[in-house]
Amino acid sequence: MLFKQQALLRQKLFVLGSLAIGSLLYLVARVGSLDRLQPICHIESRLAPPGLPGQIPLRTLQYKRGLLHELRKGNASREQVRLHNLVQQLPRAIIIGVRKGGTRALLEMLNLHPAVVKASQEIHFFDNGQNYARGMDWYREKMPFSYPHQITIEKSPAYFITEEVPERIFKMNSSIKLLIIVREPITRAVSDYTQVLEGKERKNKTYHKFEKLAIDANTCEVNTKYKAVRTSIYTKHLERWLKYFPVEQFHIVDGDRLITDPLPELQLVERFLNLPSRISQYNLYFNATRGFYCLRFNIVFSKCLAGSKGRTHPEVDPAVVAKLRRFFHPFNQKFYQITGRTFSWP
């Protein structure tokens, strides 16, 4: 009899323990999902100081991640959109470049901020004549759903080097904020080459070595017709943008520093966008296996960038590197002068 009572007691304790663990796991998941969920009322003390130029009226916002996910998939009803006061807004800030400078990492990291929503794909509206001809309504429909006080950001790196884009963006919004993320020009050019090389190798196609593309065989000078080199002449492209926008509407992000120490760069962007400081070290953790920082949205949800990021670069002939450094040096100095930001590029 005593043995049966002990067995029954153990069974009851097991059931109660299972219920307690299940409830705890539910609460953890619930808290995690609420970490960026429903918008709550104004909390003035949490907003940026009033009176900043171009200050955007913000609430302390937390995402309904599940609902926004359904909206992105097209599964949410019009009634849900209406009830939650969600809209598709034109971007108030655009990451216009530079290709292989870290545009995807920057966009994903800014999306940590509760007042920012991102367009998931590169839309190529302003640099693609066929897309541009579809009109502004088509462009707006490509934007994510958001709350009215959130900022929508998109990124298309080809914007920076495409001649027609500055005027087209100016016609949409002459006061838009423009983000440019740059890396040391030679590093960026080699990264550009590496991405193209990988694509060729997947298709079993041959491709010239970087040195042969970067140096003109006839003149032995730097080949400015090679796109990877031309894209890294940042000042040439920026000067075209400055015909339409004042330098104050640009913010230059250090793409090399975003890899090694991202938080200070993100805090500078928050200030540029007149956003209250929300991104903290908690949101960024270093993944030793990947060699990059990953993103933590809450205690449940985190993500790392795609495996294609951080490709191994080929070794480049030191003589070619030296020639490229001499070539880029005057352009870099002018870029520092225009933007007011100096980098430790050799």
What distinguishing features does this structure have?
43% helix, alpha/beta, 346 residues, 10 strands, three-stranded antiparallel β-sheet, five-stranded parallel β-sheet, 14 helices
Topology:
Layout: H1 2-34, H2 65-73, H3 78-83, E1 87-88, E2 93-97, H4 103-110, E3 116-118, H5 129-132, H6 136-141, E4 145-146, E5 151-155, H7 165-172, E6 177-182, H8 185-202, H9 210-214, H10 227-231, H11 234-241, E7 250-254, H12 255-260, H13 262-272, E8 284-287, E9 292-296, E10 302-303, H14 318-339
Parallel strand pairs: 2-5, 2-6, 3-5, 6-7
Antiparallel strand pairs: 1-4, 8-9, 9-10
Helix pairs in contact: 11-14
Broad structural category = alpha/beta
- Report the strand count: 10
Strand proportion, as a percent range, falls in 5-15%
Q: Considering DSSP H and I runs of 4 or more, what fraction of the residues is helical?
A: 40-55%
Distance between the termini: 85 Å
Low-confidence stretches: 23-65
The DSSP helix count reads 14
The residue-averaged pLDDT reads 83
